[in-house]
Please model this.
Amino acid sequence: MSSMWDQLEPLLARVQKPARYIGLEDGMGSPEHGDGKVSWLLTYPDTYEIGLPNQGLQILYEILNERDDAVAERAYAPWTDLEAELRAAGLPLFSVDTHRPAPDFDVLAFNLSAELVYTNVVNLIDLAGAPVRAADRHGADPIVIIGGHAAFNPEPLADFVDAVVLGEGEEVVGEITEVLHPWVAAGRLDRESMLRRLAAVPGVYVPALYEVTYHDWSDGGGIDSVVPRFADVPDRVDKRTVTDLGDWPYPKRPLAPLTEVVHDRLSVEVFRGCTRGCRFCQAGMITRPVRERPADQVRTMVADGLARTGYNEVSLTSLSTADFSDIETTVTGILSDRTASSPIGPSGDPIGCPTTINLPSLRVDAFTVGLAGEVSSGRRSGLTFAPEAGTWRLRTVINKLILEEDLYGAVESAYSQGWTRMKLYFLIGLPTETDDDVLAIAELAKRCVEIGKRYTHRASVTVSVGGFVPKAHTPFQWFGQNTRDEFGRKIELLRTATRRAGGVNLKWHDPAATTAEGIASRGDRRIGGVIERVWRAGGTFQEWGEHFDLDLWTDAFEAEELPLDWYVFRHRSDSEVLPWAHLTAGLHADFLWDDWQSALAESGVEDCRWTPCYDCGVCTGYGIEHVVASPVAPAGGSQGTGQDLDRGAAVPVELVDRHGRERVGTSA
Amino acid sequence: MKLRLRYGKLGKVRFVSHRDGARLWERALRRVALPVAYTEGFTPRPKLGFGLALPTGAESVAEYIDIDLVEGADIDPGDPELISAISAALPVGIDVSIGAERAASDASLQEDVTSTTWELYGPGIDAAGIDEASDRLLSAEEVLVDRVRKGRSHIDDVRPLIVSLGPDTSGTRLRAELVTIGRALRPSELASTAFTGIDPLGVRVLRTHQWIEHGGDKREVLPLAAAIAHAGRGSA
Model:
């Protein structure tokens, strides 16, 4: 009944890429609103192209629409041209499914994948016609909920949201719906008691129910305490985790868009969680334990998804897909299923092009390259690895235990099998990093090109360098981020070192953006004022280079009289109350601190999936465990587990000799 | 064997670009497991031929696609079940109306189509304006329009590109047949030329026919039964 399509339609003739606002995707439900149903507007606070493929949003969309008491539609941030048209016409944010205005929904739920979208969240609450600050919302205003990885330190957004979901949403969205049901049925009146009931749902954090007090700036300025305002509000909120991914074969009806999006292919999640233990990696820390999807379910989901969408490419997603126990048989199975379901030509052969399997987030070793070779159909052009640090020493600090010999072995194996371009991801600004560590990145890249030249004159290596932003709930949460100038200096070191290196291309992330990410990553509630100012000054789409402006952020800090250096560049101490201390992903604070100390001592830990538990706290605390089909580490246990780490820094002799000097970082 | 299908693009889906439309067809044809022929090489592509691009935002009841099938394939192109299966695999608003076998000797749509018929309507277009514009443009010796080609401004005489011009049966829409050879006259350009001060972005556009004319013999690519041809009219 309530569609604003007629008002929206004339505006779409005036904006870029109007197809991103029309919905109609394969897999779109036919949401039916009705009395007593809690209506959710699942909103991705970035463009449709980025948001549509998001699996979390697709999963919750389906789960909610399967319920009798809920209905869900989707919204994405309108690009600036449409936003201007909407505001000029006095129209609000809308769903793409039925073009229903956002104010008609009971819940505005945001999926947050990155910190720089925070200003978009505020903007979209405003565009939905609600007051941006939770304290100013009353009566008919919708409830604003956030979730996703970037909601694990929600404090910078605490003043704008009504509730935060920590962890996986599959189960909790239903529990929230049940709490909201009477509130909605009664006409969305008594907000206060509804929020109190929400706070009782495990995994749900209601920021307004906690009082945060601070020390004077003369006394350090940190948090003094975070105290629940009422006795029935929990002291600490734990994340939610589904026990078995096999119980949740979603999305069953994947969305295939009508216009091009960033991941324009089918995605099937093969496992969740990662215990490689990379200390910089928030995703690996907050999604524990490892829960593999049964291999036959993966195969069924791939076959169904391909048939349903007509895609001929599938991504098997996880944080490290080569670690999936049954990866080889799964890959073989998918390829043969596809052949079996292809139309058979008159010659008796299946016709059409074979399914392409995409394996993101691969380990660095020869097994992985073999796997990549198995699934690549067509031209072998680029292959991506993420060593993250240039020296073995620094890799032991970050616990990304890739031996030098594995790294060069993988590269050699790739070039020898026909790949011509490598892309290598590194972080700079890691704890204990020296200039030698940074320069080693250039050295490593040059060696890779040297290996490649033995196989092809076209061999090239793209080095992609990102600035490290310490994240909440990781062992590096106490570390002071490098300054913008320091990042600039290190990038300059690399530019100089690679300038005359044939075949090495250097790319880097804007250090100014890294600073802004650092503000949001570990900010407390006082950062809310900064976010609101940046938004009011027009600072939306800060993830986008053409819209990002660090001056907006530094000006806002000045206006709020807050010290940017204190928030971003300062090392924290053991005794400090971190802004997210009352929220947990299940990792013991002691474990995180001890792991931070082990990092500084250059001591690695093994993957607890295949080796004894070191009690990070997640499995024991939540009474859950790893769901892993194979009891042993794959392919001889590369990346640390079961390897002789004393040999970690050993460089293949021919590479050392060629350069006439010993590798930086090898033992003296 | 080669197929030629006629389809419509009506409603919300009018905002899908020509390029995105091609991707939709690839997925839809895989879903119905039509034995489409693929190109050779590292990255095999289905052999599909699309006709003249429809501007993003325009609707149509006269779009065409040519599909090459694998050698030896034997498909009844008029099979209603096939037609409805393909329509079902395409997004809401894109529906196949007719299928036919395309003779191996037939030229591509791009080469063959000589003119297309459009209907223009919306704010700024009324019966009086349509009559005035039709008389003025059709009686003119030349109609000079400033158009941008390859980044440079050109004054073109577009009068030879206008085959016919006048009201539709309701009198509220401007119906125009425009030549498609060379740099064609776009519906939006026609609107600006015909109606002074009109906002071309507010004009609604519907393509109703594509014509092939050879040596005085003029025919529609694949003609529809009259009842279907007017199906698009209701969507305004």
